[in-house]
Amino acid sequence: MAKLLIVDDDQELRGMLAGFLQSLGYEVEQAASVNDALARLQQSPPDLVMLDMGLPDSEGSEGLQKIRSAFPSTKVVMVTGNADGVLEKETRALGALDYITKPFDLEQIAQKLERMLS
Amino acid sequence: MLYHYVIALLVTCVVHLALAIIVFSKGRKRLSNITFALYSTAGSWWSGFEAFSISVHDQNLALFLWRLNHIGVIFIPIFLNHFVVSLLEPEKRNQRKKVVQISYLIGLCFVLLNITGILIREVSPKFSFRYFINASPIYPVFFVIWGAWACYGLANLFRILANSTGQKREQLSYFSWFMLAAYLGGAPNFLPTFNIEIPVLMPFGTYAVPLYGVVTAYAIDRYHLLDIRVLTSYLVIFIIVFGLIFFLPLFLLFPAQEQLRAGLWGAAVSVVFLVYRYLQKKAESGILREEKSYLKALEDASKEMQLIKDLDRLMETIVTNIVNNIQISNAALYLKNQEGYHLGYAFGDGKESLPKEIAQEDLLINELRIQREPMLREEAQEKPDVSQRFSLLMASVIIPCLIKENLLGFLALGEKKSGKAYNPDDLNAFQGLAVPLALAIENTRYLKQLEETHAKLVEAEKFRALRQMLNALSHEINNQLTRMIGPMQMITIQNKDKLDEELTKKLKGIWQEGMTAAEILHDVKRYRDKSESKELVEVEIEAMIEGAWKKFSGLLDQMGVVVHKELASPLGKFRGRESFTELFYNLMKNSYFNLREPERKELWIEAHRNGTCVEVVIKDTGGDFSRVVCDDTTGGELFAERGKLGGVNLYLAQTIARDAGIELKLESNQGIGVIFRVRIPLAETTPSGGG
After folding, report:
1. Parallel, antiparallel, or unpaired for β B330-336 and B406-413?
2. Those residues with Cβ within 8 angstroms of residue B468's Cβ, 6 or more apart along the chain or in another chain
3. Among B156-160, B319-323, B351-355, B357-361, where is mean pLDDT lowest?
4. CA B132, CA B121: separation in Å to the nearest integer?
5. Are strands A98-101 and A75-80 parallel, antiparallel or unpaired?
6. CA angle A28, A29, A33 (to 5 degrees)
7. Inter-helix orientation angle B59-86/B31-53, to 10°
8. SS3 at position B308
């Protein structure tokens, strides 16, 4: 099964999403910041990163740029609580596979991940 | 006697030559200036050669000089007529073109007769002249034609004078009378040819010719627009100072003492101009007292204008001050904008008929840029297009307000109520007024620009703060919602088989409401993003409705809503702020929320053209609003309480409609549903048809 890395500073939210995805059979790792995520990527690269856009060490698309410049082949999906059309376009242009807004529909996330990782 | 003739003729020659040069240099391309310069040259030619013709001792030389003299004589009435024709309106001028051409032809015939010796055959001593012409058989014919032609020219000149008004009349009045006097005084110079001599008039009448020249030269050079009263007073002073005070006493008191007389005369000459200037100033202050008082008032007003910060008030102050102080019938101030020059403020008779805009490239604007000084209606007569603008603006004088090369605006002033002409002092004052005016206009504009920039910055800052706040709020609320409804959805997914139907339904309902709340927050953000832009956009109404429809068609389909859509094509375009594009999205979202509960789920979307408007109806069979505060957005606040969160979309739709100046009406009847009626004014460019 595919390996996922969830990057979010909200532990409760991160845990809930991780629990749901693990129940679907994914191998899930967690990180609370972009630096933490970069360290984990260094150790064992996942198949896909779910990256929150409001992290303490990176704002907006900054985290995406850092990850994509260090690991260009990594698939990244952006997750945000603040939907913004401009930012969505910007992150997609920087290589994000998708832009998911909170609160999300878990069933839809499951479908999207399956499609992106197939 | 001969002495007086020679002096008068030589003075005439010099004065007319000077007059020709002055007039020509003041308008090298203007027909009236050219013809008048030619006329004066002919006068100078005539008088110069006649002064020598009558005084030389050699008969053959005298004959030669007389023949030369007559070349000028022949052309005097021809140039006079041409000059008079040049004063006419362009249309009438063209009608007389042939007459002018024929007169030149006749003139050339006489020149030929003159140089071949047919016109003047011989000269002989007559009266006090050393040599004067003896009439040849053809000379009486020439004399009659010359006289008739001169009379015709003068008659036309007086006809123009009689038909003229305002400043032109002022200018022509003294000019015409002095010219008539010159002809009456100068024409008797022909009479010795026929052995006739009129005592006193000959030689003293000849002095009327240089006097006319002096008056005209003086008037054209400095006082060509001056009130006749001032001119005559100056002349009287001139005659008194130079004649009565200085010359006459010298001759009367010391008739035989030439050396003493010359000495005293020299001393007198050295102070005469000071005395003359002193008296002239006294006369000016007396006659122009009224004018000087309003010029002072204008000067004071221009100082006050510098302190005005509001452009509209400044324009009103400028115009009303000028109208009230100068006592003119009307005045208008045009100010530069991006397209051209727009009417800023107008006062007085006929202001409603003034053009609202004058293009940047308009001939009048170009002329003002070139001239850079107050321009009189009379000066524009040679340029029909510019003259026509004066008529359009009901202006007698136009004052440009310039800062360097930038024409900031101009003042168009009508006629003085007194009927008097604008004089050079007026124009000088206007020229002086134009500079502080331009500065005051520029200052207020700069201040206005600063205020606008400041307002924009404040607004931008407000938007920035609002955006930050809304983003933070959105982030927090959405995270919170995810924490709340995420586990609920997870429970329903992971325990699909264990949970009973009732509980699953309730959990799904809570999840659904959470998602709806997030959506509403998202819609508010969408509106905020669009409303930030103040730029006007032109949008196809049909495309806008279709675009909004596409966003909901899938959801409505899933909900089993029966949709009746009927859009006329093309509907046309609307021009307004970008936020307008969100109007139908919010109205349809309202219907989407409205249709979630009832059993009968139907939605109608209809749009058609009605004259210069598009009428859109969105009607659903959803629940009615429990209370509608006001049903007309144009009249006041529209807010519907419905106990559901969908009211936010309605509020946004109302705000968008109000910002765009669109009529939005709501009908809500119990058990029937909600009807929205939208009336959108079409953009002007929209072609008619459709619907």
Report:
1. antiparallel
2. none
3. B319-323
4. 11
5. parallel
6. 140
7. 160
8. coil
Given a cut of 70, whether residue B221 has pLDDT beyond it is: no
Whether residues B475 and A20 touch (CB distance < 8 A) is answered with: no
Strand partners, B334: B343, B410
pLDDT of residue B181: 83
More confident residue, B273 or B41: B41
pLDDT at B669 (0 to 100): 67
Inter-residue contact A9 to A55 (CB < 8 Å): yes
Distance CA A6, CA A1 (A): 16
Q: Which chain B residue has the Cα nearest residue A55?
A: B475
Predicted local confidence at residue B469, as pLDDT: 82
Which secondary structure element, helix H or strand E, spans residue B413, and what is its range? strand B406-413
Structure tokens at B7: 């002096």
Contact assessment for residue B212 and residue B11, using Cβ atoms and an 8 Å cutoff = no
Does the beta carbon of A39 lie under 8 angstroms from any beta carbon of chain B? no
8 A C-beta contact, residue A5 and residue A46: yes
Residue A40: count other Cβ atoms within 10 Å of its Cβ: 17
Give the H/E segment covering residue B375.
strand B375-376
Two tokens, residue B495? 């325990």
Q: Tell which residue, B637, B617, B625, has the closest CA to residue B593.
A: B625
Taking only the tens place, the pLDDT of each residue in B124-149 is 998 888 899 998 899 999 999 999 99
- Contacts of B600-605 spanning 24+ positions with Cβ under 8 A: B601/B559, B601/B560, B601/B561, B601/B562, B602/B561, B602/B562, B602/B563, B602/B564, B603/B556, B603/B561, B603/B562, B603/B563, B603/B564, B604/B563, B604/B564, B604/B565, B604/B566, B605/B545, B605/B549, B605/B563, B605/B564, B605/B565, B605/B566, B605/B567
Give the integer Cα–Cα distance in Å for B629 and B627.
6
Q: Do residues B647 and B579 lie in contact, with contact meaning Cβ atoms separated by under 8 Å?
A: no
pLDDT tens track for B521-562: 888 887 777 777 777 888 889 988 998 888 888 888 888 899
Q: Check: CB of residue B385 under 8 Å from CB of residue B393.
A: no
B233: pLDDT strictly greater than 50: yes
Q: What are phi and psi of A58, to 5 degrees?
A: -160, 140
Whole-angstrom distance, CA of residue B208 vs CA of residue B218: 15
Helices and strands in chain A, H and E counts: 5, 7
Assess A59–B contact: CB distance below 8 Å, yes or no. no
Check CB contact under 8 Å for A85 and B494. Answer: no
Cα first-last separation, chain A: 11
Alpha-carbon gap: B322 to the closest alpha carbon of chain A (Å)? 56
Q: Which of residues 507-566 of B touch A (CB under 8 A)?
A: 514-515, 518, 522, 525-526, 529
Q: Which residues of B touch A84 (CB under 8 A)?
A: 471, 525, 529
Residue B347: CB atoms within 10 Å: 20
> Which of B688, B662, B666, B691 is closest to B677 using CA atoms?
B666
What is the separation of C-alpha B634 from the centre of its chain, rounded to a whole number of angstroms?
Answer: 39
CB contact (8 A) between residue B481 and residue A17: no
Say what the pLDDT of residue B266 is.
66
Q: Which of B471, B479, B526 sits opposite A102 (nearest CB)?
A: B479
Tell me whether residues A103 and B514 touch, CB distance under 8 A. yes
Using one digit for the tens of pLDDT, what is the confidence trace for B591-603? 888 887 788 888 9
Helix, strand, coil tally for chain B in percent (to 5): 65, 15, 20
Residues of chain A contacting residue B526, judged by C-beta atoms under 8 Å apart: 85
SS3 (DSSP) at B526: helix
Residue B583: both structure tokens together: 């109007």
Q: Pick B403 or A18 by higher pLDDT.
A: A18
Alpha-helical segments (H) within B133-227: 139-163, 166-186, 201-204, 208-221
